[in-house]
Structure prediction request, 141 residues.
Amino acid sequence: MTTHTTTTTWKHNMQFESTNPSGETFLINAAPEHGGAGAGLRPKALLLSSLAGCSGLDVASLIEKMKLEVADFKIETIANLTEEHPKVYDAVTVEYHFYGKNLDENKLQKAVNLSVEKYCGVMEMFRQFAKIDIKTIFHHE
Prediction:
């Protein structure tokens, strides 16, 4: 069994520094309206970045393995935050945007589907608490 350990250390006021198992660090900070200075990432938004990063790594690997021509690729995550405490994401739309002249839409959609349905563990975690909507958008240049 594999375990991951992170250490999150209070720096001052509403700021923390967190380690990653790779040894990298990043700052977490509350929004100014909650006493933060805005110097750092917001905890809930980090979840969305983790979701996009996990799936994005899958898709990027598949783009390479399938030898697909893609000029650019980005993932937008749009999440609905509930009003009552504890505020949670109850619905998330994940939009995969592909840019290029010779996009193979069928293979790119297959790559997205493999990530969404089989490989992305963060996606599976999100399914436990949120409705997930997947959209794939092709921008032919």
Observations:
- The radius of gyration is 17 Å.
